[in-house]
Amino acid sequence: MIEIIKAIIFGIVEGITEWLPISSTGHLILFEKIFAFKNVSEGFWSMFEVVIQLGAILAVVVLFWNSIFPFTNKNGRGFKESGILSHLDKEITTLWFKIIVACIPAVIFVVLGLDDVCEAMFYNYFCVAIALIVFGVAFIVVENWNKNRTSKINSLGEITYQTALMIGLFQLIAAVFPGTSRSGATIVGALLIGVSRTVAAEYTFFLAIPVMFGASLLKIVKFGFNFTAMEAALLIIGMAAAFVVSLFVIRFLMGYIKKHDFKVFGWYRIILGAIVLLLRP
Q1: CA 186 distance to own-chain centroid
Q2: 67 C-beta neighbours (distance < 10 Å), count
Q3: Is-contact 246 238, C-beta < 8 A?
Q4: Distance (Å, whole) CA 51 – CA 213
Q5: How far apart are CA 174 and CA 22, in angstroms?
Q6: Is the torsion defined by CA of 25, 28, 33, 37 positive or negative?
Q7: H-state helical runs in 33-160
Q8: How many Å from the N-terminal Cα to the C-terminal Cα in the chain?
Q9: pTM of full prediction above 0.85
Q10: Does residue 84 surpass a pLDDT of 80?
Q11: What family name appears in the similarity comment (predicted)?
């Protein structure tokens, strides 16, 4: 029962921090030091902290289904009996091509095996704390710089392939340094190149779908499929908790950024990073 409670806690933390630009991986690393699982196989945690994100990603699929499912017909969205390709929604299909382009840097990063190198080097208290602080400062600086500027890109359709690739490059920062936040890195990058807050957040949500599915599949393959019954239960419960919490957090964030900037998350990151540095063993 204690282990199940831990899985629920991790799921709640994942559901909150995956979408708010405060680093889900960083928070999970910190919480793992307090609520570490007992009696699980070697390497389970490394797999769990990535695959649990599938629950959060499923929330995006559910909430934004009409914005990401590309097949249409006269009666609404769905497959037709014949001529499937002729019923593709052009705008949504183009959006997916741009998302694929944004994923190219991450794919190259993984193919070269740099993800394992960075995990070995930077997944620790000190690096997480520094990343929290540095990107917290970045949020405040970028928002101040962006305050009186007019966004150049105010809809998903206005994102070009070049812009998509640039956002994908910013995403790599989070892949290298835990505590940076994947959503935080892509949002900061998007703001810097003139994307509005709302569009930056939405594009970040959609970009997470292939990135997190790919990362989770890779982690499961590396871990193997020899889950114990308890490990399988912990993973499913964690994903379920992340899914439920994400439904509320995504809605909150989309409403919040229509009236507020991201500076509050920057200050949170700085304070949390400072606490971690003071309390780290």
Answers
A1: 9
A2: 15
A3: no
A4: 8
A5: 11
A6: negative
A7: 44-51, 53-63, 65-68, 90-111, 114-122, 125-146
A8: 28
A9: no
A10: no
A11: Belongs to the UppP family.
User: What is the average pLDDT score of the chain?
Assistant: 86
**Nearest Cα to Cα of residue 47 among 239, 206, 245:** 239
Vertex 271: Cα angle to 179 and 240 (nearest 5): 50
Three-state secondary-structure class, residue 88: strand
Q: How far, CA to CA in Å, does 97 sit from each of 68, 164, 203?
A: 12, 10, 13
Give residue 268's domain range: 2-279
162: confidence class by pLDDT, cuts 50, 70, 90:
very high
Q: Are 192 and 169 in contact (CB under 8 A)?
A: no
Residue linked to tokens 């769990």: 48
**Counted domains in the chain:** 1
Instruction: Name the β-bridge partners of 76.
Output: 73
Q: Where are the alpha helices (DSSP H) in 194-262?
A: 197-223, 229-256
The reported pLDDT for the residue numbered 87 is 67
Task: Pull the structure tokens for residue 79.
Answer: 């497959």
**pLDDT over 50 (residue 112):** yes
Q: Six-digit token pair at 25?
A: 């991986």
Predicted confidence at residue 54, as pLDDT, reads 92
What sign has the CA pseudo-torsion 257, 261, 262, 263?
A: negative
**With contact defined as beta carbons under 8 Å apart, do 27 and 13 qualify?**
yes
- Within a 10 A sphere around the Cβ of 231, how many other Cβ atoms? 19
Here the tokens at position 53 are: 């994100």
Q: Which residue has the tokens 């910190």?
A: 30
Closest CA to 68 of 103, 94, 92: 92
Q: What is the pLDDT of residue 159?
A: 94
The whole-angstrom separation of Cα 206 and Cα 16 is 17
